[in-house]
Design goal:
7 strands
């Protein structure tokens, strides 16, 4: 990966954890490309922070994903880092989850990551770069879930996809890893994230923050972690241990 002014693409960057990671990368000197989809108000806010590198794209659409990556390469010639911070959540027992909700979670969390990884394969190989996905706390435990079974199933699939990409791309010098947040209150977060009983169950005594995740992302996308691939790191204060 480039040692100076790397070029990064951060999805899910209009708010929350993705926005914090994008800010941290930019603050560290990276040229950060961000993505908005639905609202012009999203675009205006991003343009102030990431001028000239703001793109509109539906990351669930293969064609738009390919066009997005092509625009980045045309502008900056390289791509060093992919951070995929998209991931809708559905709360509730499986008895209350509809089939279309599960299908959406799989498309939004897993298929979108597959499309992005496919689109950035050659650019990341050329730069010997890295990819980073967002999971959820405790995803590797394979525990039954009473409130987030459908969401965790999607994140479990994403974990397998990430590790498979890490194995396939390693011979080309490309790394893939995952960070898994716990409870991180932020704009647009599900109301369950603010549940007092859940927050009090966190062993380290406080909910997570976007800054906590951003610090982990900075390390995993830097040369300091150049020998780390295929790993998932819970950044959750011990939640779901």
């Amino acid at each position: 990966m480039a040692s100076q002014s790397p070029v990064c693409l951060v999805t899910g960057s209009t708010r929350g954890i993705g926005r914090e990671i994008a800010r941290a990368l930019a603050g560290n000197g990276a040229r950060v490309h961000v993505v908005w989809f639905r609202s012009e108000s999203e675009r205006a806010g991003l343009e102030q922070e990431f001028p000239g590198r703001v793109h509109q794209a539906d990351i669930s659409d293969d064609g738009q994903v390919r066009d997005l990556v092509a625009r980045i390469i045309e502008q900056d010639r390289v791509l060093d880092v992919l951070v995929h911070a998209v991931g809708d959540v559905v709360f509730g027992p499986l008895a209350e989850v509809r089939r279309e909700q599960l299908d959406h979670l799989l498309r939004n969390n897993v298929s979108s990551a597959f499309s992005l990884a496919s689109a950035v394969r050659e650019p990341l190989r050329a730069s010997r770069g890295c990819g980073l996905f967002l999971g959820c706390a405790g995803v590797e435990s394979l525990r039954a879930r009473t409130a987030t079974a459908a969401y965790t199933a999607a994140k479990t699939a994403l974990l397998v996809l990430m590790r498979s990409l890490a194995r396939e791309e390693a011979p080309f010098g490309v790394r893939y890893n995952m960070i898994s947040p716990g409870l991180v209150p932020h704009e647009g977060a599900h109301e369950a994230t603010l549940d007092k009983q859940r927050l009090e169950s966190i062993p380290l005594g406080r909910p997570g923050s976007g800054a906590d995740l951003a610090r982990a992302a900075l390390w995993l996308t830097s040369d300091q972690s150049s020998h780390v691939t295929g790993q998932n790191i819970d950044v959750a204060g011990g939640y779901m241990l």
